[in-house]
Write a structure and sequence with these properties.
Layout lengths: L1 E2 L18 E2 L13 E3 L8 E9 L4 E7 L4 E8 L11 E6 L14 E2 L2 E6 L4 E9 L4 E10 L1
Parallel strand pairs: 3-5
Antiparallel strand pairs: 1-2, 4-11, 5-10, 6-9, 6-11, 7-8, 7-10
Length: 148
């Protein structure tokens, strides 16, 4: 991918004359999952599961789930009691396919809390579900994932 800023005079907001301009090469087909990744698995005979977790501000929770091309995934995230969110409802998530693309839409665009997203999966392999918060210090969440 070749990245060129629309307005080079403004750089990209990083400061210290840092620019994102350049040529970037994809190194592999697997998503970068980092160290804090948890695999989602369904109980035998089930096509959905519920995951409960906590997100600290500035961190992401990452989940991997295997699926086949053509299957439909549904993800629903809600905040749970005991949050330090101040009612912000600012938990967000996005889905990354095995080839690094974004089945939910624009690259990196995240769906907001109390959101439900459903869509047909384009590739076979491991998908990454990434959750984060915008402002809250700590958020307890419930995530329901189903694949059919």
């Amino acid at each position: 991918i070749i990245v060129t800023s629309k307005n080079e005079a403004e750089k990209c907001g990083f400061g210290l004359n840092v620019s994102v301009n350049g040529t970037y090469t994809k190194e592999n087909e697997k998503p970068d999952v980092g160290d804090k990744t948890e695999r989602i698995q369904f109980a035998p005979g089930k096509s959905s599961t519920v995951v409960f977790g906590k997100i600290e501000h500035g961190n992401e929770e990452v989940y991997l789930i295997g699926a086949r091309a053509g299957q439909t995934i549904t993800i629903e995230i809600t905040e749970e009691a005991g949050n330090d969110s101040g009612g912000n409802n600012d938990t967000v998530f996005h889905l990354i396919s095995p080839d690094g693309s974004f089945p939910m839409g624009k690259a990196g665009e995240m769906a907001e809390i109390d959101s439900r997203w459903s869509g047909k999966l384009p590739k076979t392999g491991d998908y990454k579900i990434v959750l984060g918060t915008i402002e809250s210090e700590k958020v307890n969440f419930k995530m329901t994932v189903s694949i059919r």
